[in-house]
User: Fold this.
Amino acid sequence: MSRGVDVIDLSTPPPQPDDLWQPTGDSLDEASTALLGAPLLELELEPEGGHDGGTTSGASHTAAEPGLGQSGIFSSVVNLANTVVGAGMLGLPHAFAECGYVMGTLLLIVSAIGSSIGLHLLAVSQATVGIRPSSFYTVANAAMPSLTVLIDVAVALKCFGVATSYLIVVGDLMPDAVAEYGGNTNRSLWVGIGWLLMVPLACLRTLDALKFTSTLALMFVGFVTLFVLLYAVGIPTLDPCDGERGEINGTTSCRGAADYATTTGDRTLRVFSIFVFSFTCQQNVFQLCSELKHATIDRIDKVIGVSIGSSWCVYVVVAVSGFITYGDLVKPDILVNYPRSAFVSIVRVAVCLLVVFSYPLQSHPARRCILTMYIALRHGKGSRIAPTTVEFYAVTALFLTASFITAMSVTNLGSVLELVGATGSTAVSYILPGAIYWRLHPNAHPLRYIAAIQLGVGCCIVPIALTFIFL
Assistant:
């Protein structure tokens, strides 16, 4: 997929391409001006007041983005994989219950491929634009300047929905985790505690600063995956129907039917957005490209392949094992099905820590989108003014507060996954990568046609998925 662009280094302006994978002819700036009607953005951030270092009183402007070109492959893989694997993992067994093993596995494969293509399209598009640091706003401004605000709004809303789902998970699981030991089971209390733990992590300025918490989060992912698998294989000491949770619909068994292949179209289309949601991580690809050392397309594709591939393996194990265990009685949050015990309580706490550590991977790109819109509104498009410290923390506080209030009032994780997957996740994974690449690469070549398919699929998913969600 990366033929012809493997040697592009994002730390310098892109070289002139020599084949059909990139535009040919005039220089990049001239071609962009002619095709798009606006020059490319220059994002060399400098202090407000000019090159002499003067700043506005009380403001903290920086001349360079922290962390640029300093992350290794491992750090990048960990952060991107942690962006992928989150609350969506808990909803996949329910999605399999709606569409069966065969269709569920197929949708996992299709969604993983679609997400990988979207990531590659965005990475190549950033190389074409040649801006560091970048965001959806800066790249979209080069491709579709009239739609930049709409694009940033879509990305910010998608990240907001995912971050809110993490707080909902904490509210779902912690009351059951502490009930075994006579602890306080008030949902609002635990949402508040989880939120307080997320606050300092959300205030970090770079993704690379999160590599340690992301590594811990992935260890929790492995632990949870093993837990779900152990219950599925039928170990005698691990009874999924043990205790009061075994009383479902007046029966003594918590196991429902597990349909391997048969499904109905409306049920599959209703949960398809959960599969899309589960692989959405495009909001962080631009920061990944900016922070990765020697950020060639080849190195970025390695990060994408390892991250998406490992996440797919985790998803298959969790989805199939959870479905085997509870069949069509599996709940939108698989961990709610399991009985109360010390072992299960430990797993619930591990999942809560996983989503706490994953929260800043959503707040970071959302904050960047909001700040770029704010700076463009205040100083004009193409402004090289960096946000002040006050502005940085004000937007962070606004995001944190809004997600907390929403999580306190919304309790259905499945509804959040379906709605965010059908709208924001589809836009970020399919529509925007396809549209941006198509606009930035006008010459006919295979990857441009793939981008067109990506765009078309996304435009079909949104109305179809929303229709079946609300039916």
